[in-house]
């Protein structure tokens, strides 16, 4: 556990700390403002779709930079001094921290723009569902980044894989998010597919990282 905490701190300082976080947060602000100016059809479906579009692109931008930071010499250092699972968990925790901040920022920005009202319970259901989807997408992007980095695919492979592999997550979370905004209801059965996808993505990371580590 100490190694994981130390590595999370190391990721913060290696990326430039506050500078890196502010640069990641700048994109959602610009994208939301531009879309606010050009979009006139402010329905709940548009609102949900735009939320996820900006969230996906912002998370891709934040995590995709790691493929440029990790040089072969650094990877060899990681291999000698850090356990593979600790490395994966530390990167995942740091990425979830980043995406959660982006998630909170988007909620604040888009709620200022929302053309409809909803109750506190309805908002809690919506928040929980989308936060689960955000964590799932972040986990997927971390796994893809490690695959792209350790197979020498670089940013090109990361960019090619992220969108198609994130489509099943979007297909499960986006309709559910829209359904909550329309009806205000959420059933346990609605969460089976998102939770299953989240578990599969995390399990894939746990299984793949040790293999990539040996390469």
Structure description:
This protein is an all-alpha fold and 215 residues long. The chain has one domain. The protein is built from nine helices and no strands. α3 (44-64) packs antiparallel against α6 (84-111), α3 (44-64) packs antiparallel against α8 and α6 crosses α7 (120-150). The radius of gyration is 18 Å and the shape is globular. The two termini are 25 Å apart.
Please write the string of helix (H) and strand (E) elements. Answer: HHHHHHHHH
Approximate helicity band: over 70%
Q: What structural class do you assign from the helix and strand content?
A: mainly alpha
Distance between the termini: 25 Å
Strand count, sense and barrel status of the largest sheet are: none
Mean pLDDT: 76
Task: Summarize the model shown.
This protein has helices at residues 2-14, 18-38, 44-64, 66-69, 72-81, 84-111, 120-150, 154-183, 192-214. With 215 residues, the protein is an all-alpha fold.
Provide keyphrases for this structure:
mainly alpha, 84% helix, 0% strand
């Amino acid at each position: 556990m100490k190694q994981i905490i130390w590595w999370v701190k190391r990721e913060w300082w290696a990326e430039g700390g506050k500078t890196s976080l502010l640069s990641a947060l700048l994109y959602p602000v610009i994208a939301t403002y531009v879309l606010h100016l050009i979009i006139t059809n402010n329905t709940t479906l548009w609102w949900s779709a735009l939320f996820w579009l900006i969230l996906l692109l912002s998370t891709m931008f934040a995590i995709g930079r790691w493929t440029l930071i990790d040089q072969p010499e650094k990877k060899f250092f990681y291999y000698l001094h850090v356990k593979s699972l600790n490395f994966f968990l530390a990167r995942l925790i740091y990425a979830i921290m980043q995406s959660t901040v982006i998630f909170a920022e988007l909620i604040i920005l888009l709620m200022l723009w929302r053309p409809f009202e909803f109750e506190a319970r309805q908002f809690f259901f919506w928040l929980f569902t989308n936060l689960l989807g955000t964590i799932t997408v972040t986990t997927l992007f971390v796994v893809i980044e490690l695959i792209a980095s350790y197979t020498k695919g670089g940013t090109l492979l990361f960019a090619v894989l992220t969108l198609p592999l994130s489509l099943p997550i979007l297909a499960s979370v986006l309709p559910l998010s829209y359904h909550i905004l329309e009806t205000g209801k959420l059933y346990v059965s609605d969460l089976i597919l998102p939770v299953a996808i989240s578990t599969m993505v995390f399990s894939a990371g746990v299984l793949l990282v040790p293999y990539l580590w040996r390469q």
